[in-house]
Amino acid sequence: MKIEEKFKELRDKKEKAFIPFLVAGDPNFEDSKEAFEVICKYGDIIEIGIPFSDPVADGLTIQKADFRALSSGITPIHAFKLAKELNMKFPNKPKVFLTYYNIIFKMGEEKFVKKCSEVGISGIIVPDLPIEECESLYKICKAYNIDLIFLVAPTTTEERLKKILKKASGFIYAVSVTGITGEREKIQEETKNFIKNLKEKCHLPVCVGFGISKREHIEEITKLADGAIVGSAIVKIIEKYCKNNKIENKEKFLKELEKFVKELKEGTKNKILERV
Prior knowledge:
The chain is α/β, with parallel strands linked by helices. Helices cover 49% and strands 13% of the residues. It has one domain (3-274): Aldolase class I (TIM Barrel). It has helices at residues 3-12, 29-42, 60-71, 76-89, 101-107, 109-119, 135-143, 158-167, 189-201, 215-221, 232-241, 250-266, and strands spanning 17-23, 46-49, 95-98, 121-125, 147-149, 151-152, 172-175, 206-209, 227-230. It is globular.
C-alpha cells in the first residue's frame, strides 16, 4: 500500500498516523517478527530499522537494539525477509525502511531499491544522506515508485528546506528536537512552533519523531502534525524482557507490547478536525 493512500484513508476516518519503529531482528529474527506483528495491528505505517554498527542519529536505546540484532547475525537480507513476510500478512500497512547509507552503498543503490520494491517496502528513510548528495538514489526511488523520506530539523535552513520539499515524497519526518533519538518528558513549545511553520510550507504530511514516548505526547503533537513516530519507548519493552538475545516470558512481553502500542494509537483518533 502506498503511503499517500494510507494518509487519505486516515483523513477519511478523522485520524492521524501512528508510526511505530522497531529494529529488524532485535533481539533475534523470530522474536522480532512476533513483535512486529503486534505493532502492525495498531500502527498505520510501520518503520523497520535495518541494524547498523554505527547508527549516528540514534540514542543509546536504539544503538543497543542494533547491537542485539547484529550479534544475533541479522543482516540486511533478514530485514528484507521480515518486510516481505509482514507485507504478506499486513498488506494494508505501508512499511518503510530506516537505513544508513553505507548499507545501500554496499548493496548498490538500484539493487537495494529494487529489492525494496519486491518485498513491499513503500518508503526509505536515510538519516545520513544529505539532500545535496541524494540525486542518484532519488531518481532510482522514483523509477521504482518508492518514497524517499527526508528528515527536517528545527535547525534546517530555508534554503535546504526548499531543496528537500522538491524531492521528498510520502511524508516529511520532522525531528522534534535537535540531537539523537530517545524519550523526552514533554513536548517543547519550540517544537510546536516548528511544526506549525513547517505545515505552512509543506505539501506533504508532516510526522514528528524523536522524543515521542507516550499517549499524551501523541495527543498533543497530532493536534498540529499528521502523525507521530515512536521508537525508543517501544524498543525499551524489548530491552526489558531480553536476556542473552532472547525474549523471556514471551506471553507477558507480547501482552505489555500490545497494550502499549494500542494506547499510543488511541492518541491519534478523532484529530482531523483539530488540524492546523
